[in-house]
Inverse folding.
């Protein structure tokens, strides 16, 4: 037997988890949480929360490029971190050639990349929040295009209600000015989302906003995710017709002419109806895959548009 020394006992009170990581993440495609400070719950409309790590600094922060907005930002990535794969060095070089002010140019490159990544990664617990965010962006663009990923409703007598989606938990949140929180609004929500229990939350002190939360069942495949988003779309249109009938007519006219956006429809064939139970049993922690084979996939042989043809792996780094 080995005697327990005093230094062994000190581990009980010393920090165990380091706030920084020694893992090299440059070129990694990661899922992350974009800042919602400027936009409130739901985040910014264009941000997808799926980004490429462009570079790393000595203090542990990373420069990220969001594949939805083409926006670059510097942040500290904290675990657990979901890595969906790595881009080729040539692809990274192409992205770095565009400056921070060229978001529109970058979006023409990154949005197809995001679609390809999600299609190859498939539907699982790691990609589900990204797919719900992608689908809800369509809904917000159709009904209320503005900076935030939310749908706003002008309430009778003034004040604005704001509907957003919690992508991780499939919960619809409706923020309502506390002074406008009436039975009429609750009745309207119940009519818009029948058979969904409404959870009422008191306003955070000083915020002046009370939130109703409508929890839905987590979708287990892409078909269920699209059905959930279609249900949220119907409920949102019901609220729009109830509170702003003229705007509702204008939105309906636009949808009849151009049709509803449905980014997830383009992923239907590549993602498929993979159940989470099967995905959970087959996707454990895997060794990072650089996606650069030795047979002609090196950075020196890739063109500017190089993109990994192999399926991307999904993994969690703690």
């Amino acid at each position: 037997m080995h005697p327990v020394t005093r230094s062994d006992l000190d581990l009980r009170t010393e920090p165990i988890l380091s706030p920084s990581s020694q893992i090299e993440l440059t070129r990694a495609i990661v899922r992350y949480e974009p800042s919602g400070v400027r936009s409130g719950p739901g985040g910014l409309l264009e941000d997808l929360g799926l980004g490429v790590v462009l570079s790393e600094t000595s203090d542990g922060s990373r420069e990220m490029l969001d594949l939805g907005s083409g926006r670059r930002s510097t942040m500290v990535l904290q675990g657990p971190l979901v890595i969906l794969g790595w881009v080729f060095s040539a692809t990274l070089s192409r992205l770095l050639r565009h400056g921070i002010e060229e978001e529109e140019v970058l979006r023409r490159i990154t949005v197809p990349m995001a679609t390809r990544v999600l299609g190859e990664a498939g539907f699982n617990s790691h990609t589900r929040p990204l797919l719900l965010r992608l689908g809800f962006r369509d809904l917000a663009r159709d009904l209320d295009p503005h900076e935030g990923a939310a749908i706003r409703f002008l309430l009778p007598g003034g004040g604005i209600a704001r509907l957003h989606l919690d992508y991780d938990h499939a919960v619809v949140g409706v923020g309502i000015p506390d002074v406008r929180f009436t039975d009429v609004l609750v009745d309207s929500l119940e009519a818009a989302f029948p058979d969904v229990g409404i959870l009422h939350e008191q306003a955070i002190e000083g915020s002046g906003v009370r939130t109703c939360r409508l929890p839905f069942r987590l979708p287990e495949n892409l078909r269920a995710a699209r059905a959930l988003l279609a249900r949220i779309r119907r409920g949102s249109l019901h609220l729009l017709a109830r509170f702003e009938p003229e705007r509702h007519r204008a939105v309906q006219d636009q949808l009849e002419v151009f049709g509803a956006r449905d980014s997830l429809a383009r992923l239907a064939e590549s993602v498929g109806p993979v159940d989470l139970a099967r995905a959970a049993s087959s996707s454990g922690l895997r060794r990072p895959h650089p996606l650069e084979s030795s047979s002609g996939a090196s950075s020196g042989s890739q063109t500017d548009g190089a993109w990994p043809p192999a399926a991307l792996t999904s993994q969690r780094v703690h």
Observations:
- Residues 272-318 have pLDDT under 50 and may be disordered.
- The chain is about 35% helix and 20% strand.
- Residues 8 and 14 are 10 Å apart (CA to CA).
